């Protein structure tokens, strides 16, 4: 159990986001946005010009930052860096795949839900949801 | 199996038997406890799993509502509201704090969100559409609430998964490696002790038999001696004359 990541009990952590503009604007409106002294944001707005490299860098940065507890990532963005998301297995920060307006949510792609399905048959998951 | 014929390298003595037996008792108790722990974790795990699936389903609904609220706000307040929002970002007012829950010795993180300071976007949409903007904000706060809950469930899921794997590994190690090895050691020590006892018994018997034979031989020897002495004495008493007589009769050296 020694190799398990220590769970920090700090009193305030941030929620990071990688999503399209509308989703980010909505969450910023709710007040999750943060800009630190070096003008670093805790969110990345996806548009048509964003490269995969940028997403990867942002994902790696958010998952390694100490003050971030949850990373929200749009599912279609997560699909672009699926290998990174799937290989990530630390409990904190938690990666959450969220649906977006343009892309309907597909539970089959979710890294956690697919792991759930590995443990149980599809039927039991479906019956558990009812 | 490989662990079947393995045993600890110990000197087969009674003291060592006691030690190994104590270890075996300890291993058995530890195995039972770990098994219980694993069961408790699995129960918790299944509950969390069910909750995760439910929350994931409802997440789609909540996100849809909040997206729609944003569209409403945009429609009323104009497209450029997003620029205002993006420019107004300073410090996060909505943050997450984490605390620990303890389930059967496994620490599970629990997130909860809280608003630290009043939001900077209070004046957003002051010109027009303020109502819609506030509604949109409320909708997204609700979404955050759900997402934070989902995040803590998911984190618990991963932590529990790991913990269950570790516990099961330990249970299996105790059951399939440690306990058979100790059992083998105990039976080995017992068989060695039995062997020693049999050897001792045999040796004692052997020595007893040897001693008895020796005594019998001595008895027999003394008896023979007694008999010989006795017969000698008897023959001495009545046989001298007889001997002399017979010697006189049968002496062939006598010529005449």
Describe the structure.
By secondary structure, chain A is α/β, with parallel strands linked by helices. Chain A has helices at 21-30, 52-64, 75-80, 82-87, 111-119, 122-129; strands spanning 14-20, 43-46, 68-74, 94-98. In chain A, strand 1, helix 1 and strand 2 form a beta-alpha-beta unit. Chain A starts with 13 loop residues before the first strand and ends with a helix. The model of chain A is unreliable at 1-6 and 122-130 (pLDDT under 50). Chain B has helices spanning 14-77, 81-87, 130-250, and strands spanning 94-103, 106-115. In chain B, helix 1 packs antiparallel against helix 3. At the A-B interface, helix 1, strand 3, strand 4, helix 5 and helix 6 of A face helix 1, helix 2, strand 1, strand 2 and helix 3 of B. Chain A: This is V-type proton ATPase subunit F. Chain A: It comes from Melia azedarach (Chinaberry tree).
What topology does this entry show?
The complex is a heterodimer of chains A (about 130) and B (about 260).
Chain A: E1 14-20, H1 21-30, E2 43-46, H2 52-64, E3 68-74, H3 75-80, H4 82-87, E4 94-98, H5 111-119, H6 122-129
Chain B: H1 14-77, H2 81-87, E1 94-103, E2 106-115, H3 130-250
Antiparallel strand pairs in B: 1-2
Helix pairs in contact in B: 1-3
Euclidean distance between termini CA atoms of chain B: 105 Å
Main pleated sheet of chain B: 2 strands, antiparallel
> What's the pLDDT, averaged over the residues of chain A?
74
For the residues shown, what is the average pLDDT of chain B?
A: 81
What is the strand content of chain A?
Answer: 15-25%
Elements of chain B, N to C (H/E): HHEEH
Globally, the shape of chain A reads globular
Oligomer status: heterodimer
Q: SSE order of chain A in H/E notation?
A: EHEHEHHEHH
Strands side by side in the biggest sheet of chain A: 2-1-3-4
The number of helical elements of chain B comes to 3
- Helix proportion of residues of chain B, in percent? over 70%
Largest interface summary: A-B, 53 and 65 residues
């Amino acid at each position: 159990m020694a190799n398990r990541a220590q769970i920090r009990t700090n009193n305030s952590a941030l929620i990071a986001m990688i999503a399209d503009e509308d989703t980010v604007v909505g969450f910023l409106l709710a007040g999750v946005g943060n800009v630190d002294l070096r003008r670093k944001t805790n969110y990345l707005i996806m548009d048509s010009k964003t490269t995969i490299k940028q997403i990867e860098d942002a994902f790696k940065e958010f998952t390694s930052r100490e003050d971030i507890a949850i990373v929200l990532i749009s599912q279609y963005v997560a699909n672009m860096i699926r290998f990174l998301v799937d290989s990530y297995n630390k409990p904190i920060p938690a990666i959450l795949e969220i649906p977006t307006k343009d892309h309907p949510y597909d539970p089959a792609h979710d890294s956690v839900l697919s792991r759930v399905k590995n443990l149980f048959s599809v039927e039991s998951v479906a019956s558990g949801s009812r | 199996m490989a662990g079947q014929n393995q045993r600890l390298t110990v000197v087969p003595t009674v003291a060592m038997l006691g030690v190994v037996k104590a270890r075996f008792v300890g291993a058995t108790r530890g195995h039972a406890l770990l098994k219980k722990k694993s069961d408790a974790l699995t129960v918790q795990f299944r509950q969390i799993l069910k909750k995760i699936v439910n929350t994931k389903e409802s997440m789609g609904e909540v996100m849809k509502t909040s997206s729609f609220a944003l569209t409403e706000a945009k429609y009323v307040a104009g497209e450029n509201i997003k620029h205002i929002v993006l420019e107004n970002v300073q410090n996060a007012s909505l943050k997450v704090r984490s605390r620990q829950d303890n389930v059967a010795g496994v620490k599970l993180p629990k997130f909860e969100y809280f608003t630290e300071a009043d939001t900077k976007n209070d004046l957003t949409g002051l010109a027009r559409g303020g109502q819609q903007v506030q509604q949109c904000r409320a909708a997204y706060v609700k979404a955050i609430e759900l997402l934070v809950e989902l995040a803590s469930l998911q984190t618990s899921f991963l932590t529990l998964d790991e913990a269950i794997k570790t516990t099961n590994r330990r249970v299996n190690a105790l059951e399939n490696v440690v306990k058979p090895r100790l059992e083998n050691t105990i039976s080995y020590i017992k068989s060695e002790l039995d062997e020693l006892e049999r050897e001792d018994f045999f040796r004692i018997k052997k020595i007893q038999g040897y001693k008895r034979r020796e005594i019998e031989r001595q008895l027999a020897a003394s008896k023979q001696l007694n008999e010989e002495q006795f017969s000698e004495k008897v023959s001495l008493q009545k046989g001298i004359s007889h001997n002399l007589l017979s010697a006189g009769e049968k002496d062939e050296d006598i010529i005449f």
